[in-house]
């Protein structure tokens, strides 16, 4: 597999050379979206972690760290707890500081989009720590929401008593943005949601709900275009209902993503020494040490003459 040249962008990699020190992994196949461009690296799918024998999954994860060096597992807050327990067990058994778990407060479709953005950046000359910590930065540019047939079981966004009551009315639908700022409105003619102030694409995943409202939202948000993908299996658990259409607005251009990440100041983790952006190392979870201000010097007591 070749590494394509990238004028004006990533440096230090010669044409035809492949250098991928970090692999992006997901916990189910539906979270591995199709490649955005020819540079997008494939995702590693850690399938059925809680159902396969421990030794099999241990061998698999060890092989990944040996092959790539660093592994970043991107998963949602709706990922089943048995899967998360297995991941932590595997990392503990391997005693590895080269495995990171990134679990931001994004709905599942947003998680899948973020994982693909990191897969795009994995083809660039970013160090493992910078690539892993770039996820926190990129979440700020993702607008994720859904159209729901009921908000009775929605606990990810504040839901008022009136909205709860209206959710029991047959035919009611609600438009919700969970990230970056919670929004919830009942769908009525002309209603819309506050969207991004920059150019994006929109991805849509349809569940057990029929609505064309999201297409109008894409126009209102001035999206370049609208693409469809199957609904992630974790989405009904996250949103509290299967009667839904999930949507996500995101940056798709690799040059824009690269510029965002490389424009942020990098520093070295004081604990493990890896280069990072932000205030927390994704691999060892260390935060910068807090330096206590020096105590004020006591006033010298002067003896009266």
UniProtKB/TrEMBL annotation:
Protein name per UniProt: Uncharacterized protein
Source organism superkingdom: Bacteria
């Amino acid at each position: 597999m070749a590494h394509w040249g990238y004028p004006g962008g990533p440096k230090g990699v010669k044409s035809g050379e492949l250098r991928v020190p970090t692999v992006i992994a997901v916990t189910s196949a539906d979270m591995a979206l199709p490649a955005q461009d020819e540079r997008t690296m494939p995702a590693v799918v850690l399938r059925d972690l809680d159902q396969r024998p421990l030794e099999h999954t241990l061998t698999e994860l060890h092989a990944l760290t040996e092959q790539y060096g660093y592994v970043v597992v991107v998963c949602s807050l709706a990922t089943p707890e048995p899967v998360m327990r297995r991941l932590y067990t595997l990392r503990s058994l391997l005693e590895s500081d080269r495995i990171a778990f990134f679990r931001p407060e994004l709905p599942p479709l947003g998680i899948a989009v973020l994982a693909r953005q990191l897969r795009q950046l994995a083809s660039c000359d970013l160090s493992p720590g910078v690539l892993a910590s770039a996820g926190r930065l990129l979440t700020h540019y993702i607008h994720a929401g859904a159209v729901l047939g009921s908000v009775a079981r929605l606990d990810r966004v504040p839901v008022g008593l009136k909205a709860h009551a209206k959710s029991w009315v047959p035919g009611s639908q609600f438009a919700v943005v969970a990230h970056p700022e919670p929004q919830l409105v009942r769908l009525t003619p002309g209603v819309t949601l506050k969207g991004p102030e920059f150019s994006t694409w929109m991805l849509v995943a349809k569940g057990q709900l029929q609505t064309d409202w999201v297409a109008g939202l894409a126009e209102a948000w001035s999206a370049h275009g609208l693409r469809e993908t199957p609904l992630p299996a974790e989405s009904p658990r996250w949103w509290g209902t299967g009667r839904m259409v999930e949507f996500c607005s995101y940056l798709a251009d690799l040059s824009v993503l690269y510029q965002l990440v490389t424009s942020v100041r990098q520093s070295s983790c004081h604990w493990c020494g890896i280069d990072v952006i932000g205030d927390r190392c994704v691999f060892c979870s260390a935060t910068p040490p807090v330096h206590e201000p020096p105590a004020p010097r006591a006033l010298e007591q002067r003896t009266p003459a």
